[in-house]
Amino acid sequence: MTDAQTKRRTRGGGGAARRAERTAVSIETARYIERNIPNFEILTPEALEIIEANAETVLAEIGVNFVNNPAALERWREAGADIEGERVRIPRGLARKLCETAPSRFTQHARNPARNVEIGGKTLVCAPVYGPPFVRDAEGGRRYATMEDFRKFVKLGYMSKWLHHSGGTVCEPTDIPVNKRHLDMLMAHMTLSDKPFMGSVTDPSRAQDSVEMCEILFGKEFVQQNTVMTSLINVNSPLTFDDVMMGALEVYARNNQACIVSPFIVGGAMAPVSVAGTLTQVLAEVLAGIAYSQLVRPGAPVIFGAFVTSIDMNSGAPTFGTPEATQILSGAGQLARRMGLPFRSGGGLCASKLPDAQAAYETANTLNAALLGGVNFMLHACGWLEGGLVSSFEKFVMDADQLGVLHKLAEGVPVDENAQAMGAIAEVGPGGHYLGCAHTQENFKAAFWRSDVFDYKPFETWDEEGARDTQALASRRVAHQLATYQEPVLDPAIRGALEAYVAEKKASMPDAFM
Amino acid sequence: MTDAQTKRRTRGGGGAARRAERTAVSIETARYIERNIPNFEILTPEALEIIEANAETVLAEIGVNFVNNPAALERWREAGADIEGERVRIPRGLARKLCETAPSRFTQHARNPARNVEIGGKTLVCAPVYGPPFVRDAEGGRRYATMEDFRKFVKLGYMSKWLHHSGGTVCEPTDIPVNKRHLDMLMAHMTLSDKPFMGSVTDPSRAQDSVEMCEILFGKEFVQQNTVMTSLINVNSPLTFDDVMMGALEVYARNNQACIVSPFIVGGAMAPVSVAGTLTQVLAEVLAGIAYSQLVRPGAPVIFGAFVTSIDMNSGAPTFGTPEATQILSGAGQLARRMGLPFRSGGGLCASKLPDAQAAYETANTLNAALLGGVNFMLHACGWLEGGLVSSFEKFVMDADQLGVLHKLAEGVPVDENAQAMGAIAEVGPGGHYLGCAHTQENFKAAFWRSDVFDYKPFETWDEEGARDTQALASRRVAHQLATYQEPVLDPAIRGALEAYVAEKKASMPDAFM
């Protein structure tokens, strides 16, 4: 595969491409995380069994709705479900049985094979914020997002060492017609980054466009044989699968592309106001959604998703980084692992309107829960603000920096002879100090993680330099990253074919803004 | 005991005290945390055994120094250690054997028995920041701490629902002579709060004063039979026990009062630049220190402490909330539990100069690590800023609020019939919503934790109200807490006796500022 890709990448590449390849700056990206630490498991086996039994009861007795989707109802009928109108009641055990053909782990390929990611098992892949209609930065405040903002976020993602994935709708480019913006978004991910990315899900035809653009980028045969997109299919909770999302899922599953089947729940509104009840509903929805993907194409890669926020019962506002959100994340991870499926949950989620302390407490609570809860695909790992209404430039680089903490923590604790450092303890002895000893000299460079954003200077120096807070430090980093960004090399023939595809598609339909 | 205390509290109390008792506002404080969740264990049993064997080697072959303390050397000689100058080499197994008389769990009594805390096993007790010479607030900036600042922090601690303990040196009152400030600090904890507190450790005579003031507050017999103070004994790492700290420990152990024996380590400077090496040294130091406490008085209550920061190898500055700090905290907790001892580690530690996003990321990383790492006594749980140089008023209430997250998370996940919510799922069905259903109405009040500091309002409302960041919201809360503070009732006779003790002690010596 690597050979094929290499060939593909250089096919038709002239002297310009080769020159570009020679002069391009290589942006270092850490390999996806492979955990060498245990998962934190909050639920007992008995609790998990209760929830699993209840989820089967929900599917068998209450059922789920597949809306405006006669083909789906027919697939379910053939599989043995009981159909009544749009309601699908699934006999106990059937959904779980159907899910068994889904792979426990898969590779998502990037156009640069060094950026391929493994999703499942002990891995953790970090992808940026998804979906906000607004952006914010310190200079310009909060405003509707544009395609230019979108491109900047893709560039920042490409420049982020600890971010493995370019994501999808890093913000909604509201200046581009709704029915055409997916083309520009995909073009940005394909040309401004060489990390893996997500496809469009807002209409089945846009999912099809995503597949076709990937066929240009990767080659048609390669796409059919390999997963090159992981896309986000939200369940319309409670217990409802609408035709738009299912239509996109059908396109992706048929083409061997990965879907995250993700209940989207504001707790107390779209699910019961209890952790166990919410987990029951999450599991029922995921079982039905993933089973359906396997009815479309057995073996299609999928991810067990769970996006669940708590709610402020005073105001009805969604809340993040709360203990209940952590409990649900942790429990959902356990349920996913018992199904042998990759797991997706939140990353740097927060409710705050600013990249301030509230945002950071909420975000850090979620990031820690996600690492320890066994998340394999972390969407919204950086840049999310204001409950997902805003993509923040400063928070993007702040969070992306914190992902480094997760990488180092996941490595676990070496206890080889060098790590034991018995020679150093003997050399230094009581009352001595370690800064100058041989062991320290040999090991200090890799010993401690350090932030590339935070300030570690003495108070006096920091004060003289303007007493900058984290937002100000992050603003400076955003500007530096964008100023030093260099586009990764892409075969000009492929670029030309992509541009022609986008132009042709755009010309084929009138603009739509709804 | 409760009867005796009640009697003591009303003894000699006249009509004024009774009137005060009737009119006093009752400040709600949560009970200390009793975990109903598993601990996160980062080290394998094999790794733990290697570290334990190495720590015995350190004690037997390298040894520890007990400085300026002939009585300590004599105690060690009698116990079977090898003494050479001030160096104490402890045969394999001896220190661990001596530690066996230390209790695995103890009660620290407060003058209000409802505020007593249990330290050990699955509990977590939260105490505020300890030691900074500076304070900071949004209005006044950074400045030297005064006794007035100290009193404000004690009041804020008393008002904090999720804080179980009044702490010790919540800031250094630099306007009071060094040799007298412990008297004013104890007086503040004893009169402005009714939560448990810590004693002075800066000189053995000041530890003795702490015991004598407690004898006035609790009664002499009560103090000898019960633990009423938990005090912080730092080890002068590496492997050195100085006469000041050991002198204080001797006073407390003789009087049945608890000590935290706590290696104080900036990684790479006072310990090897590796997690396993640092844990080896931590364990050796704790074994020696706690064994010594048991030589002074077998059965004296103690806590296995570990204060370890990582370091920025570029500048030498200590760093907080880093992955290595989490690894060491987690590993030290495992070592403590294998000794059957209560465990202390950091709380809201951070390097940031401001209560901004950096501070909150670093703090939240540490708070999460401490909850999951099995910490029993969390010092610096709130208010710590700038690597411990500054006590921040705003961060005090921000962190104290976040401690609520830990309380709820520690409760675990109920799976009783009400929590399963199967009736609600059936009632609402596919496509419905839960806000109005009976289960939600019955459960919503206790369902989700909410912050008392953060902003959950819609953007427009928040913007109209001044677009306040977390620091501004916290400033308002500090002012509100101090304005509504009411002193807890104290028997005037006891207050008078304490005042007389302090006045007499102060008059007995000249001021010293060094």
From TrEMBL, chains A, B:
Enzyme Commission code: 2.1.1.-
Alphabetical list of Pfam families matching this protein: MTTB
GO molecular function: methyltransferase activity
Statement: the UniProt record of this protein carries the keyword Transferase: yes
Keywords: Methyltransferase, Transferase
GO biological process: methanogenesis; methylation
InterPro entries cross-referenced by the UniProt entry: MttB-like_sf, MTTB_MeTrfase
Ranges where the record places region Disordered: 1-21
Protein family: Belongs to the trimethylamine methyltransferase family.
Protein's name in the database: Methyltransferase
